């Protein structure tokens, strides 16, 4: 007799991310699918981690995070967003944004609660909401602008709504939401007494002078927002998995109760290095944006020259292309399977970020790569807009 396992997880299909990465390996493809940079990351920050491993404390640090990092996070957000946070009551360190999200969802959601989620949706949200007994209410965002609309919000917010999960800047659509959309969402959160769990892991990766606005800074949201960040994205060190949760003391206290039984704590050497990194000058963060924007423009120009309609990326490591004007008569997933086998370039179909009613004409490419990698991919794709 087969043992019975938790259906929330047992019934999860293998994600298309995994399937595409496997196809990329099988076909020896250039992988513009997964979102990690070619660059090894800032050397001084990596040295700070090495130094902390050799000369620092390597036993269990405080479950809330080392004091230097909690203080550095509060100072960083004061500097960048004029946000006043008490480092010891309103800031906690987690093992990555993913753990922060899981801790926040489990801390807020109880059986029967409705949780509003926007599609395209990051893949970790829905299983954890369901594990908590929550009922996801999906809002479908529409290309090419993927904006929040009053009509869409009015349809889903109601007296059973407990939380909204909002990702800004939005992966995979590469949108940096303007104040107008944040104010609209904030109005609904206040009218229906809803907690906002804000996945802002891409907060520093914005282009063309666009500034990320944390939802927690919108009037009325300070005490009902759980803000989530990740050093992995801020410093292009995605393997480090150092996340942050910032929230009012009454909210953070409960999120911390979940965190204590998920991971309890996080590698102290990496925490020390991130504390150092967050204190770097504004120029460092600006240069990172300039460098990534240059790579974005490089891939955009190359794809446009081949004939792909590129949707402008405002942030993240990604840009998207819209296949619909090409008349290829194939879905985004079929297109991605075709280019990985026929052209040996891997990309991600945006339909993978939908549970239902998927947009099936948009494909995501990661541009956080060396020019040589992007050029090689472009050369391989040179006649991919025509079907073989
Ligand atoms: N949220 C979003 C929108 C992401 O893109 C990612 C990373 N791809 C995460 C959360 C997870 O962050 P971390 O790697 O720090 O767990």
How would you sum up this structure, described in words?
This protein has 388 residues and is of the alpha/beta class. The protein has two domains: 7-40 and 283-380, Aspartate Aminotransferase, domain 1 (Alpha-Beta Complex), CATH 3.90.1150; 43-280, Type I PLP-dependent aspartate aminotransferase-like (Major domain) (Aspartate Aminotransferase, domain 2, 3-Layer(aba) Sandwich). The protein is built from 14 helices and 13 strands. The strands form three sheets. The protein has a seven-stranded mixed sheet with strand order 2-8-7-6-5-3-4, sandwiched between helices. A four-stranded antiparallel sheet has the order 9-10-13-12. 48% of the residues are buried. The mean pLDDT is 96. The site of 4'-deoxy-4'-aminopyridoxal-5'-phosphate has 14 residues, from helix 5.
Percentage of β-strand residues: 5-15%
Q: What's the average pLDDT?
A: 96
Q: CATH topology of the largest domain, which one?
A: Aspartate Aminotransferase, domain 2
CATH superfamily of the largest domain: Type I PLP-dependent aspartate aminotransferase-like (Major domain)
| CATH secondary-structure class of the largest domain | Alpha Beta
Helix content: 40-55%
Structural class: alpha/beta
Q: What number of domains?
A: 2
- Characterize the biggest β-sheet: 7 strands, mixed
Based on Cα principal axes, name the global outline.
Answer: globular
C-alpha end-to-end distance: 48 Å
Number of helices: 14
Give the second-level CATH assignment, the architecture of the largest domain. Answer: 3-Layer(aba) Sandwich
Number of strands: 13
Q: Rg, please?
A: 21 Å
Secondary-structure element order, N to C: HHEHHEHEHEHEHEEHEHHHEEHEEEH
Across the major sheet, the strand order is: 2-8-7-6-5-3-4
Detail the poorly predicted runs.
Answer: none
Bound molecules: 4'-deoxy-4'-aminopyridoxal-5'-phosphate
